[in-house]
């Protein structure tokens, strides 16, 4: 069900009207979630082109998606993991668009604290799309998260900012193996 403006009014799965927008993935595509059944879906036209990762010189087929609202962190992580195929996204909506169109993503690396969608929310939605997806959380707020979300925080692999490149590379290798 959609309104006259083309925005869904109800979940396509359970038909309940308890939905919320997760934000725009492009000017035509928007992500939604149902509060009742936790269904996640995109509405609108798919973007004309979604960034396609370019294989590295090493020819690695392991694909890492990095999500952070800080472009300097994205660049640093991308350089640190240059042996892998790396795609980047600036927010959760952009990451969900990539996850829904790319055939293979071996690891999602996400910042925890981002506007519109936290890393925890992104992890939840990403696992609904890809239940076996490995996720690594980056944060500069580990102490606060440990107090606020001890169960979730203890269950997710994470790296605390600031970190050394070798720490990040070791964490990635532990999760998906070497490039």
> Strand tally, please?
8
User: Count the helices. How many?
Assistant: 6
- The first-level CATH class name of the largest domain: Alpha Beta
Strand order of the largest sheet: 5-4-6-7-8
Q: What general form does the structure show?
A: globular
Can you identify the CATH superfamily of the largest domain?
A: Response regulator
The number of domains is: 2
Order of helices and strands: EEEEHEHEHEHHEH
Strand fraction band? 15-25%
**How would you state the average pLDDT, rounded?**
79
CATH topology name of the largest domain: Rossmann fold
What percentage of residues falls in helices of 4 or more residues?
25-40%
Low-confidence stretches: 46-58
Query: Span from first to last CA?
Result: 45 Å
Q: Any idea what the CATH architecture of the largest domain is?
A: 3-Layer(aba) Sandwich
Q: Mind describing the biggest β-sheet?
A: 5 strands, parallel
Structural class: alpha/beta
What is the C-alpha radius of gyration, as a whole number of Å? 17 Å
What's the arrangement of secondary structure elements?
Layout: E1 19-24, E2 29-34, E3 40-44, E4 63-67, H1 71-80, E5 85-89, H2 92-101, E6 107-111, H3 119-129, E7 134-139, H4 142-148, H5 150-155, E8 158-160, H6 165-176
Parallel strand pairs: 4-5, 4-6, 6-7, 7-8
Antiparallel strand pairs: 1-2, 2-3
Helix pairs in contact: 2-3
Verbal overview:
By secondary structure, this protein is an alpha/beta fold. It has 2 domains: 1-48, no CATH class; 63-176, Response regulator (Rossmann fold). It has 6 helices and 8 strands, in the order ββββαβαβαβααβα. The chain has helices at 71-80, 92-101, 119-129, 142-148, 150-155, 165-176, and strands spanning 19-24, 29-34, 40-44, 63-67, 85-89, 107-111, 134-139, 158-160. It has a 5-stranded parallel beta sheet with strand order 5-4-6-7-8, sandwiched between helices. A 3-stranded antiparallel beta sheet has the order 1-2-3, covered by helices on one side. β4 (63-67), α1 and β5 form a beta-alpha-beta unit.
């Amino acid at each position: 069900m959609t309104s006259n403006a083309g925005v869904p009014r109800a979940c396509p799965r359970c038909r309940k009207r308890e939905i919320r927008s997760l934000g725009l993935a492009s000017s035509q595509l928007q992500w939604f979630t149902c509060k009742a059944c936790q269904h996640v879906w995109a509405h609108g036209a798919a973007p004309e082109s979604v960034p396609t990762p370019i294989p590295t010189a090493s020819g690695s087929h392991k694909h890492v998606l990095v999500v952070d609202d800080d472009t300097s962190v994205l660049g640093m992580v991308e350089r640190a993991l240059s042996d892998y195929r790396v795609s980047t996204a600036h927010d959760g909506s952009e990451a969900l668009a990539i996850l829904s169109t790319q055939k293979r993503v071996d690891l999602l690396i996400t910042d925890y604290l981002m506007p519109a969608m936290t890393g925890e929310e992104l992890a939840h939605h990403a696992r609904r799309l890809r239940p076996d997806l490995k996720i690594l959380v980056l944060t500069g707020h580990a102490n606060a998260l440990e107090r606020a979300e001890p169960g979730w925080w203890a269950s997710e692999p994470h790296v605390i900012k600031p970190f050394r490149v070798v720490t990040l590379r070791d964490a990635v290798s532990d999760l998906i193996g070497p490039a």
